[in-house]
C-alpha cells in the first residue's frame, strides 16, 4: 500500500511538471516528484530492517538492521534538491522582473524573435 502512495506522489509530480504552465507550479511539482523519489529510497532501505545499526550492550543475531548507506545518500540528495530548487526559484524571480506573467507559453511568445 505504501508503494502505491509513493508511486502516486511521483506520478503527480511528473504530470504536474509536464502539464502546469506556471513556472512556480512546475518547480513545486518537481519538488513533489523529488520527495516521492526520496520516500521510495527510504522505503527500499528500510525493507531489510527497522533498527539502527548501533550496537549497545547485548548483541542479538536475529535483529535485522536498516542499511545506513542509502540513508546517507538520501540526506545528500535532499540537500542537493533543496539547492537546485532555490536556484530555479531565483531564475524565476529574474524572469518575473522582465515579464508580466510566469506562464511559460507567454514567456516563449514574448521572447521569440
TrEMBL record:
It comes from the Bacteria. InterPro entries: CPA3_antiporter_subunitC (IPR050601), NUOK/Mnh_C1-like (IPR039428). Its main location: membrane. GO terms for cellular component: plasma membrane. It is a multi-pass membrane protein. It is found in: Cell membrane. Keywords: Cell membrane, Membrane, Transmembrane, Transmembrane helix. Pfam families: Oxidored_q2. The chain crosses the membrane at residues 72-92. The keyword Ribonucleoprotein does not apply. Belongs to the CPA3 antiporters (TC 2.A.63) subunit C family. PANTHER family: ANTIPORTER SUBUNIT MNHC2-RELATED. NCBIfam families: PRK07375.1-5. This is Multisubunit sodium/proton antiporter, MrpC subunit. It comes from Cyanobacterium stanieri (strain ATCC 29140 / PCC 7202).
Amino acid at each position: 500500500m505504501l508503494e502505491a502512495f509513493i508511486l502516486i506522489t511521483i506520478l503527480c509530480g511528473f504530470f504536474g511538471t509536464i502539464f502546469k504552465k506556471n513556472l512556480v507550479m512546475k518547480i513545486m511539482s518537481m519538488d513533489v516528484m523529488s520527495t516521492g523519489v526520496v520516500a521510495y529510497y527510504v522505503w527500499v532501505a528500510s525493507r531489510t530492517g527497522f533498527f539502527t545499526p548501533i550496537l549497545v550492550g547485548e548483541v542479538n543475531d536475529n535483529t535485522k538492521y536498516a542499511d545506513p548507506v542509502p540513508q546517507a545518500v538520501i540526506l545528500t540528495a535532499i540537500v542537493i534538491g533543496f539547492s537546485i530548487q532555490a536556484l530555479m526559484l531565483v531564475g524565476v524571480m529574474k524572469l518575473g522582473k522582465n515579464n508580466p506573467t510566469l506562464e511559460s507559453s507567454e514567456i516563449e511568445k514574448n521572447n521569440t524573435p
